[in-house]
Design brief:
By secondary structure, the chain is mostly helical. Helix content is about 45%, strand content about 5%. The strands form 3 sheets. A two-stranded antiparallel ribbon has the order 1-3. A two-stranded antiparallel sheet has the order 2-4. A two-stranded antiparallel ribbon has the order 5-6.
Length: about 475
């Protein structure tokens, strides 16, 4: 027994072949894209809270989250997924630098910008400069203020934009589940993210915002942006394999009467006769049942329910998300759209920035056209909408309203747009909210800090958690300049 128990080869035989210590860069990068698309665009991270706070979804059953009755484990998971993504993206960046594969490094840095922009917009002040540094002995990372995170992300995105303009090394197509190795599209995505962040901080850091916008739009050859729907950063799912179903469609598959259309967006689209409504939502089931009080002579009837209602309705009386957005198992997770880019350009022109000769009206009209085209609206209907209810009126409010509609399924971005602009102006606080939240007058400013941060990183978290009021309110986002909201 002593002889056979020799441990000369212990290190070799104790390795689990199913858990490799080193993963090929392309595999790790593909995993990062899957992880971001699945974890940040599923019902838990996006639909239950941000999408309802944005006015994109209501709930007919299990209304808890829309009433701000959050699940602590979901908050724990959400921040865990954020830093798991960041850690693996940093590993991809390292691999790219070590193996002369700079295109992997550039793409991973773009995703870092996207992930951390979403994270700071959710929790405000979070660990960033000190994050994922366990190999350096950092067990409890310090917190950065959002006022510092945004400039840092803009600086990182500019570094990547300049690098891509010079040209990168390496074919990333084997791991690129987003753009399939097309580095021009990564370049456009990078500069489009820069525009998004610049416009978001335009009221609180106008010099940096203006400089960023004018640098990009003043040199389209060096800093191209998304121009057509073929540039959209959409992660497409394989609807034929249950392991990779689109997460919202997969939730609908088993919970058909949980999520539904919200009155806020449905009423807005009906008032404007917006032709996208038939793509966004389904007619109510009851409107097609002869003899039912809602029967509409075979004509589609769209109705949204109250966001955060105090009671559960009859599901047959309300619309749900349409096939493209909420039911297609081979659907998409939207990182960013070309339409969003042109709404930003329109706003930049309204702010007086040099937009390279693009007027606010031209940018707005192109943004709206791109959204209608993306949703396969008939050309004649699209033209009629642009000439009618959608005709440019020369106000930022109109730009923001159309941007809000176009950002459908981008829950975090719609919520951020509302917090920054107050659009839609008739948004309301959940009527079914708990008594502890009764004194507030608008939907949440933020998500609660997770228990894991308060318990495991308490010393660093405590000063920032002290600024939180009733879990969801307190200190507003840096870029949220609204007054009279609480």
């Amino acid at each position: 027994m002593l002889i056979s128990g020799c441990t000369d080869s212990f290190d070799d035989i104790n390795k689990d072949p199913d858990r490799p210590a080193e993963v090929p860069t392309e595999n790790l990068f593909a995993w990062c894209l899957w992880h971001i698309s699945y974890r940040f665009y599923d019902r838990w991270y996006m639909l239950d809270e941000p999408a309802s706070f944005a006015g994109y979804v209501a709930k007919m059953s299990y209304i808890d989250e829309a009433r701000y009755q959050f699940r602590p484990n979901i908050q724990d998971n959400s921040i865990n997924y954020t830093y798991r993504a960041l850690n693996n993206l940093r590993n991809v960046q390292r691999d790219g630098e070590e193996n002369s594969l700079s295109n992997f490094t550039y793409a991973a840095k773009i995703l870092e910008v996207k992930v951390m922009q979403m994270a700071t917009d959710r929790w405000r002040d979070i660990p960033y400069s000190d994050a994922v540094k366990l190999p350096e002995g950092v067990v409890a990372p310090t917190y950065d203020k959002q006022e510092d995170i945004y400039p840092a992300l803009l600086a990182l995105a500019k570094e990547v934009a300049d690098g891509l303009a010079e040209g990168g090394e390496g074919d990333i197509s084997s791991g690129d589940l987003l753009f399939h190795g097309d580095m021009k599209k990564w370049q456009k995505f990078c500069n489009s993210l820069r525009l998004r962040m610049a416009i978001r901080i335009s009221e609180v850091s106008p010099a940096l915002a203006k400089q960023t916008v004018e640098e990009i739009l003043g040199n389209p050859g060096k800093y191209p942006v998304m121009e057509t729907n073929s540039d959209n950063a959409f992660f497409w799912w394989d609807g034929d394999d249950s392991n990779v179903y689109e997460p919202i469609g997969n939730a609908y598959r088993t919970r058909k009467t949980e999520f539904c259309a919200p009155d806020l967006l449905v009423d807005h689209m009906l008032d404007r006769e917006d032709p996208r409504i038939s793509v966004y939502f389904t007619p109510t089931p009851s409107s097609s049942i002869e003899g039912d009080p809602d029967y509409n002579d075979g004509k589609p009837l769209y109705r949204g329910y109250i966001i955060g209602a105090g009671s559960n309705p009859a599901a047959k009386n309300y619309s749900v998300w349409g096939y493209r957005y909420g039911q297609d198992l081979g659907g998409f997770s939207p990182y960013m759209r070309a339409a969003e880019v042109y709404f930003h350009i329109a706003e930049a022109a309204m702010l007086g920035y040099n937009t390279g000769g693009i007027s606010a009206e031209d940018a707005y009209t192109k943004a709206l056209s791109l959204s209608l085209e993306e949703n396969e609206v008939d050309a004649a209907d699209a033209a009629a909408y642009i000439a009618g209810a959608g005709k440019f009126a020369g106000t930022k409010q109109q730009i923001w309203y159309e941007e809000w509609v176009a950002l459908f399924k981008q829950g975090m971005e719609g919520w951020s747009l509302y917090r920054r602009t107050g659009v839609p102006e008739n948004h309301y606080i959940a009527p079914g909210r708990a008594t502890k939240y009764s004194e507030h007058n608008v939907p949440p400013f933020r998500s609660p800090y997770p228990d894991t941060e308060r318990n495991l990183n308490g010393a660093n978290n405590a000063p920032f958690n002290a600024e939180v009021v009733d879990d969801f309110w307190g200190k507003q986002m840096w870029w949220d300049t609204r007054t009279g909201v609480y």
